[in-house]
Amino acid sequence: MLNAAIWPTLDYSRVPYRLYHDPEAYQREQERIFRGPTWSFLGLEAEVPNPGDFRTTYVGDTPVIVNRDTDGAIHALVNRCAHRGAMVRREMSGNAGEHTCIYHQWCYGLDGKLNSIPFRRGIRGQGGLDPGFDMAAHGLRKLRVASVDGALFGTLVDDVEPLEDYLGAPVLAQLRRLFERPVTILGYNRQRIRANWKLYAENTRDNYHASLLHEFLVTFGLDRSTQVGGVKMDARHRHNITWAEAESDTAELAQEAYGAARVRSNYLSLKEPELVRFRRERADPLNIAITSVFPSAVFVQISNSLAVRQIRPRGVDEVEIFQTMLGYADDPPELTLHRLRQANLVGPAGLVSMEDGEAIEIAHRASKPDRDSTTVIELGGAGVISDRDYRVTDVPLRGFWSYYAELLGIEPAGAVR
Amino acid sequence: MTEGAPGSSARDRFALYDLFAAYGALIDAAEFDAWLALFAAACTYHIVPQENYERGLPAGLVYCDGRAVLEDRIRALREANKYNIHTDRHLIGLPRLIGEKGAAKLVEAPFAVYQTDQEGETRLFATGLYRDRIVVEAGGLKFRDKLVVLDTFAVPSLLATPL
């Protein structure tokens, strides 16, 4: 039974394993988070530059078409025919003037309106639909869509707060930083991890694990917890920015913290130091900026590699990570090459990310049989949820769970927020 | 056999088959130094999802635009990366000569890679197509450019060992 009594503590420093495994929790997440008052990342305007361009995606389990109308407007439509519930647009991407369901050829416009139905009047006056059938009431369901400088978000709820309020000023600033110039798509990668989606959502908010699990970071001096950095959240603590400043520590400090044996060599020992060399592109010194937007989007800068990740739940036991690799439209060719090289760092084969797939699979596997036991989330202290200007912390995970509990209607009385 | 493009005599064909047989076997045996020796001194190695390849998008899962990056990745695999404990089994189809470009033969071969975990459970990990440029160097056939176009671009769990 999913209720407020499942939480052993009021600060979310203990999370029962059942929340990663109960089908009941999964169903309620779909209903109250993904079909609830949240904004989900849909894709980029740069992916549908021309009228008629479309891409298909998901909001939780709900299939969605994102397309650009003839007047340039972007629409997001539930990809499900009003007639028999079939998926209308089956392709991943393309260009079309309309969307026609293959089953009985019900045809919809780029704005989702039902334009035509075959044999609507029957044949020779026989069959077909009743003359009173309301075409206007049987379009593709439209999502509300909003954009932050070309990053598209959608919601299935009409009275949700505006996107900018939902994100909050710090997250909005990070998105505007990433999308400060028009982007270009360098490619996609996908990963199917046999773990619950929330283990990945936590992973992206977990500053503590980065330099421990991803040994490459420390070994080659790319990112260490001795750097100046921290975590910054929105007022409700549902989103998080994990950040670090380049070259803000010393090798001596790192060796003292990690032990000289672990900081074996700096990046100069690589045969291709460009693989990790950070080229400063902005006024700020950030070489790590990982912005997690509740529930399922992650905007990533690791050195000079740029990406957006969509966390796509695939049932209670599996998650797809769909990652779009980015550059800027005005990048010179040698900078594009640099980003393509540094794409080696991220994704399913990433030198500093492949471990996440293994880590959350073993957490999922071993936690399954004992659903009343709990995780421990206390790095950076228990109690109040707040920003930290240090890196050995997992406080933002408690922020995630706090908002999760509120949306699922299982927030205990007196809980921190 | 002469330096430059490999010929297409029966003997040259067998040399090509031997190259691909060694390629798969050496990965499966985790003999990565010997595996690296199958590449030319100047080489590239890319693993690209089919969805990027067909759209002309350049980003790869693995992007080694020179031997240095490839060697760094192998070093990281040995010294830094943690991944699912498993063994690989490459099943490589017959290589097909499809043309010539300069001193190189253009060769394609389909592959399947199965992974087996510590408890003996085997799953299909990937299928795809090698699209290679092969040259003769130091008296033997070498991969000048190896492009792994990955059919299974929804990568199961993670991709650590080379394909």
The structural domain count of chain B equals 1
What pattern of helices and strands is seen along the backbone of chain A? Answer: EHHEEEEEEEEEEHHEHHHEEHEEEEHHEH
Main beta sheet of chain A, described? 7 strands, antiparallel
Helix content of chain B: 25-40%
Structural class based on helices, strands and sheet pairing of chain A: alpha+beta
- Outline the low-pLDDT stretches of chain B: none
What number is the mean pLDDT of chain B? 95
Q: Could you list some keywords that capture this structure?
A:
heterodimer; A: 417 residues; alpha+beta; Rieske Iron-sulfur Protein; Naphthalene 1,2-dioxygenase Alpha Subunit, Chain A, domain 1; 2 domains; four-stranded antiparallel sheet; 11 helices; 23% helix; B: alpha+beta; Nuclear Transport Factor 2, Chain: A; 4 helices; 8 strands; 44% strand; globular
Walk me through this protein's architecture:
The complex is a heterodimer of chains A (417) and B (163). With 417 residues, chain A is α+β, with helices and mostly antiparallel strands. Chain A folds into 2 domains: 40-147, Rieske [2Fe-2S] iron-sulphur domain (Rieske Iron-sulfur Protein, 3-layer Sandwich); 169-408, Naphthalene 1,2-dioxygenase Alpha Subunit, Chain A, domain 1. Chain A is built from 11 helices and 19 strands. The longest helix of chain A has 14 residues, at 354-367. The model of chain A has no long low-confidence stretch (mean pLDDT 95). Chain B has helices at residues 10-28, 32-36, 50-55, 67-79; strands at 39-49, 62-64, 86-92, 96-101, 104-117, 122-137, 140-150, 154-156. In chain B, strands 1, 2, 3, 4, 5, 6 and 7 form a 7-stranded mixed sheet that branches. The longest helix of chain B has 19 residues, at 10-28. Chain B is globular, with a radius of gyration of 16 Å. The chains are: A alpha+beta (417), B alpha+beta (163). The interface between A and B is large, with 40 and 38 residues.
